[in-house]
Amino acid sequence: MSNNEEIIAHLNECLKHEWTGVAQYSQASFIVEGVWREVYADTFLENAEESFNHAKLVGNKIVALGGVPAATRNEIKQTRDLQEILQNSLEFESKAVEMYNKALELAEGNRALVVFLENILEEEQEGVDEFTKLLRNSQATSSSSIDSKTA
Ligand SMILES: [Fe+2]
């Protein structure tokens, strides 16, 4: 496999991961219920949109490199438990960071492609940071989470 083919193949794995994100985050947005729906339905929808934006960028780049974009996705994780949704979201974003880091290794020497991938990687890392903070005290679904620190 030439380096170009290797990059295209790996970008297609990234693309499949983004399509998985579109479905997984949309589903989370649809099914989150109770009072926290007010907060998290929009949050998850925004994440679905971010995945779609990345899918657009990566799909167009694959074609520019001479490849054919994947039109499939991996299985999604779904649950009604908000804490689990947040945990799945952190796993999803961490996997994305890992995948774009690998893509960056393959892109070494191609400065424009490196910058393109770095911009996406930065947003994936922001996702990791946000979900890490949301999960930090494991109180995302509890209204008493700040009480002990406000005295
Ligand atoms: Fe993404």
From TrEMBL:
InterPro entries cross-referenced by the UniProt entry: Ferritin-like, Ferritin-like_diiron, Ferritin-like_SF, Ferritin_DPS_dom
Which keywords fit this entry according to its UniProt record? Answer: Iron, Iron storage
Q: According to its record, what are the GO cellular component terms?
A: cytosol
Keyword Iron found? yes
Coiled-coil stretches are none
Q: Name one GO molecular function term.
A: ferric iron binding
Q: Which SUPFAM superfamilies does UniProt cross-reference here?
A: Ferritin-like (SSF47240)
Any one GO BP annotation for this protein: intracellular iron ion homeostasis
Mark the transmembrane ranges.
none
Q: Which Pfam families does the entry link to?
A: Ferritin
Instruction: Give every Ferritin-like diiron domain span.
Output: 1-142
Protein's name in the database: Ferritin
